[in-house]
Fold this sequence. Notes:
The protein is an alpha+beta fold. The chain has helices spanning about 15-20, 75-80, 145-160, 175-190, 210-215, 220-235, 270-274, and strands at about 1-10, 10, 25-30, 35-45, 50-55, 55-60, 65-70, 75, 85-95, 105-120, 125, 195, 205, 220, 240-245, 250-255.
Amino acid sequence: MIDFRIEYLPAINYALINNKIAVCQSAEIRNTSTDTLHNLVVECTGEFFITTLSTTIGALRAYDSMRLDKVDILPNPQMVGSLTEKLVTTFTIKVYQDIFTEGEPKSEIFSKEYNVDIMPFDQWLGTSILPQCLASYVMPNHPAISNIVVKAAKLLKDITGTSAFTEYQSGNPNEVLKQVAAVYGALHNENIVYRGVPASYEEIGQRITLPDQVLAQKLGNCVELTLLYASVLENIGINSCIILQRGHAYLGVWLVDDCCPYSVCDDYSYIEKK
């Protein structure tokens, strides 16, 4: 009676929820019967999902299809945020008709379960699923970052004679560069040991040691060290961007008060020009 097609993210994590990124990318409903269906509603339920109902579809004629503007698939933030390991779960899509018929229970005409991977809080989903979410792991306001800023201020005073981080106020790129160098020196003095990607047993993305943990453990890979550096620079008001290439990540820093207008840019010539 109903054919329902949906495109959705195969894996989700807390960063997606926090950035209000829709799990459902598109949905289409088709009436495969010979009768017109009236007053249709799409429901989404699941153990790790908040139950939602779509807006009512007044009528769907025989063999007609309709692209739905919005089907809310809403993960439960508290449950997703509490996970420490990957979990394979499902959500269920149901379609009901004649929901306004008084005295009659709503009639279910479609039901199907869909698999989805829920990743732990510190699992980045990689470059294949919204890579810009990597910036969610930049943590400029953590107390551990403030400690690095204090140490960098001492080095900055040795370089310039003042410990003030004035970011772009002077209008001089060289002054910004000196502040960036002081932060680099402070991080270098932490004697953090470089390591490869830790074991995570996942095909999507990688587990990320957060900036405060990198400082505590004195271990980090290229992505984690880049996030740490970005966290400190954001704390003092200097703009940066994370540059990814196959097998490596590193930081780009703006020496003028500017930033990339796109959340993701795959045009390497843009980076070269800037």
